[in-house]
From TrEMBL:
Protein known as: Phosphatidylcholine-sterol acyltransferase
InterPro entries the UniProt entry points to: AB_hydrolase_fold (IPR029058), LACT/PDAT_acylTrfase (IPR003386)
Keyword set, alphabetical order: Acyltransferase, Signal, Transferase
Pfam families from the UniProt entry: LCAT
Signal peptide region: 1-27
Length: 417
């Protein structure tokens, strides 16, 4: 592993030197359009499937124009390039630049791209199969897509994907939701077959938000079912941990603190913190003399006690309303979840100063989502006979999407139509 890391560092430094472009270009900030070009084919279309990725599951491309970095070795100008996720993102020195590019500025009212940066999402199925297209080190929806293709599915005919900028919260994604609605309608109109939505993690929360904004008539006409894999509907402790302390998600080349500044600047992270006190009844954090619950008021107090910057309070409030709009989507719902893995649900501060000396309390889950929380949604949102839940022991949060048993269940649910 160490040898591989050294190779990655060497290659990244070479790329840094050879690709330092002086090309100056200007363009408006955009989210890449969801691809809806119909394939000309004699094949009878199947009931369409639309994939929606979770947090970090979309490829983001960036463009730099007169970007002013704190580091002399970072690009100032560079045409469109893959930023999330590429190996450079996680390599020391080069990562300093990537962190600057991909962080969001906060003007006190809303998030903005850093001055001199533009971003777009890689559209379609290609945007979710692999996160890094060069050496394919992160297989995401690939196994599922391959199984669908074995059954005759074709991209842009009956197989679609709708990646999005996961750094943002729903109120920043109006254009995306409009495109998603258009894509669902387009998919349905190809052969008048209802669409199966397959989502993962934060993508399920985004999809639920989207569906609650649609009329029941629209859902009854266009949506066959929602297959929710590890749905982060009620939030996840790891989201809060990212804001409080940073979270390198297992990448040994970066520290937790390196990622904390990103987490604090991304509204999408706050959209993922636990918020539903009806389900998350236990305190989220505990010190010698205080308990903090998953309420807006307690989060503000916790942020203050930890000395987080003012913008963390502002972004928390900015996103809070989005979380309150997460309701039963009122479509046929299938939940697939993992259990039996240690999953954090509470942080315990070992002294009154609330410093970095902390312990985490674990319970059963998929390593990110609590089993109990998912089961509560199974019970609370199964007021119609079409809803169902299926657990997979020992399958972790990210692996659920590529696990053969989970994919087999997804395929069975699709074939039931």
């Amino acid at each position: 592993m160490l040898f591989i890391n050294k190779i990655i560092l060497l290659l990244s430094l070479i790329l840094l030197i050879t690709n330092h472009s002086s090309n100056k270009v200007t363009a408006t900030r955009q989210i890449k359009q969801i691809e809806t070009n119909k394939i000309i084919t004699d094949t009878q279309p199947k009931a369409p499937v639309l994939l929606i990725p979770g947090f970090g599951g979309s490829k983001l491309e960036a463009k730099l124009t007169d970007f002013k970095s704190k580091h002399w070795y970072c690009h100032s100008n560079k045409d469109w390039f893959l930023l999330w996720v590429s190996l450079d993102m996680f390599v020391p020195v080069v990562a300093d630049c990537s962190m600057e590019y991909i962080s969001l500025a906060w003007d006190g009212k809303s998030p903005q791209s850093q001055e001199g940066t533009e971003f777009r999402v890689v559209s379609g199925v290609d945007g979710v199969v692999y996160l890094d297209p060069t050496i394919h080190f992160e297989n995401y929806y690939l196994n599922m897509v391959n199984e669908l293709k074995k059954e005759g599915y074709q991209e842009n005919l009956d197989l679609f994907a709708a990646p999005y900028d996961f750094r943002l919260s729903p109120k920043n994604l109006t254009l995306y939701f409009n495109q998603l609605k258009n894509l669902v309608e387009y998919s349905y109109k190809i052969d008048k077959k209802k669409v199966t939505l397959v989502c993962h993690s934060m993508g399920c929360k985004m999809t639920t938000f989207f569906l609650t904004q649609q009329t029941q008539e629209w859902k009854d006409t266009n949506i066959e079912q929602l297959i929710a894999i590890a749905p982060a509907i009620g939030g996840a402790f790891e989201g809060l941990r990212s804001v409080l302390f940073g979270n390198n998600f297992g990448d040994d080349l970066m520290t937790n603190k390196d990622f904390q500044s990103l987490a604090i600047s991304w509204p999408g992270i706050y959209f993922n913190i636990p918020y539903d006190t009806k389900l998350w009844t236990i305190p989220i954090a505990v010190s010698d003399n205080k308990k903090y619950y998953s309420t807006n008021q307690d989060y503000h107090q916790l942020f203050t006690d930890l000395g987080l910057p003012e913008k963390s309070h502002q972004i928390l409030d900015y996103v809070w309303d989005d979380n309150q709009n997460i309701k039963n989507p009122n479509v046929k719902l299938r939940i697939l979840y993992g259990y039996g893995s240690k999953t954090h649900y509470q942080v315990v501060f070992k002294d009154k100063t609330l410093n970095d000396s902390v312990e985490y309390v674990d319970t059963s889950g998929d390593g990110v989502l609590l089993e109990e929380l998912v089961l509560n949604y199974c019970k609370g949102w199964t007021d119609n006979e079409s809803a169902s839940c299926q657990g997979f022991k020992g399958v972790t949060h990210q692996d659920l999407v590529s696990n053969k048993d989970v994919i087999s269940s997804v395929m069975d649910l699709i074939k039931e139509q």
